[in-house]
Each structure stands twice: as C-alpha cells, then as structure tokens.
Design a protein that fits this description.
The protein is 42% helix and 13% strand. It has 214 residues and is α/β, with parallel strands linked by helices. It has a seven-stranded parallel beta sheet. It starts with a helix and ends with a helix.
Length: 214
C-alpha cells in the first residue's frame, strides 16, 4: 500500500487508540445492483473501510462495482490484488500483500501458523515490521471455522508498532469486540455479512464502542 491518505488513516487509528471496521466485498459474489444497497448499509453503520477483492476474481465488473459503491458512499475502497487484472484506477488504495508466514516458495503450499503458537506469530510479525512492512494483516482464512485467538492478537499488538488488521472467522459482534479489545486496530468481516447484511450495523457498533469506552 502506498503511504497516502488511506494509509495515514490506518496509522492514526493506532496512534489514537481508535478501532475501525472494514467490510469485505467479493465482486464475484455480488451483483452490481446489490452494491448500492451495501453502500447505504455501510454509510448508516459508519463503516470505516471497504476492502474489495477475492481469491479468484473471475467476474469482469470490478470497475463497475467500485464506481457504483463510490457513487453512494465516501468510504475508502481498498483493493488487495493478486494479479494485474484485479487492479482498478477507481480504488482509493491498494494492499500489496506479502506472505511472511510461509515456509514454502509457493503460497498455496504454505502451512498456516498454528492457532496456539502465539510466539511464532509474534516472531513472524516482528520480522515483517523489521522488513519495513507498513501494516500487519493476521487472517484465519476466509470462512474459517475458528478465528485468530485473542491471545495471539494481544501478543502481536503489544510488541509491534505498525497497524494491526485481523480477519477470518469473525461471525458476530462479540468476536469483533473481543478482537479489538485484544489489540486489533481494524477487524475485517466478509463471509458472515454475505449471509446476513444486518451484521454490518451490529459489528460496527461493537467495534466503535471500544473507542467510546477508552
């Protein structure tokens, strides 16, 4: 991600001890006609970021999806492209993901860090920070049965300085709340919202409650 306005918003979250909620939208799973409705829900809930992308991105309407969303919302749209075809000039920022937890030269063949190995996760996060990475993104995986453990989030957050984003397996407001309480600066939810769009408001309220209590 370039260190532009959107990145500065991530940094300010960390500095000001505020928490943010990002809704993940997979263009392969939504129609352009659904985008306006999602944008309105995000606006009403006070969603902080929209992450747009997917593992395959076989649909050809990425530009159209972003344009429709931005026509109804000022929420920053962030892409995490896996190929040149997944880049759009209409996005506000790009994540350039770099896998630092793998022990295999092929990403698809890399085993995840065990959920109960907090020290390994911390060492990996510290390695990323020392390499000059701008953000840390800890993810249990799309539709994961179990989320990242709160103890792992707490350990990484306590010993690193760059913004920490956490996603995967977050299915309800309570889990989002606990992730933020443990030290996540941003929580990302996608699959659960695809099943129940009402969760957008509920999770946003749970995440933003952290700052109110601080």
């Amino acid at each position: 991600m370039m260190t532009g306005p959107v990145y500065k918003r991530f940094v300010s979250l960390r500095q000001e001890k505020r928490k943010a909620f990002a809704v993940l939208i997979d263009p392969d799973k939504v129609s352009v006609s659904q985008i306006s409705s999602l944008a309105e829900r995000c606006n009403q809930a006070g969603v902080d970021f929209v992450f747009m992308g997917g593992s395959l991105m076989v649909s050809q309407h990425l530009d159209e999806c972003i344009q429709h969303f931005k026509a109804s919302s000022d929420i920053p749209v962030v892409l995490f492209p896996g190929s040149p075809s997944q880049v759009s000039s209409y996005a506000d920022a790009l994540f350039y993901l770099s896998l630092i937890s793998g022990r295999n030269t092929y990403m698809s063949g890399s085993a995840p860090i065990p959920r109960d190995k907090d020290d390994i996760a911390l060492c990996t996060a510290l390695a990323g920070e020392m390499q000059g990475k701008h953000l840390l993104y800890v993810d249990a995986g799309s539709g994961a049965r179990l989320p990242v453990s709160d103890s792992m989030i707490q350990k990484i957050s306590a010993h690193t300085q760059i913004p920490l984003i956490v996603g995967g397996g977050i299915k309800d407001p309570e889990r989002a709340y606990l992730h933020c309480k443990s030290g996540a600066d941003v929580v990302v939810v996608g699959n659960a919202i695809e099943k129940d769009a009402n969760l957008i408001q509920e999770i946003a309220s749970a995440v933003h409650q952290q700052y109110i209590k601080a």
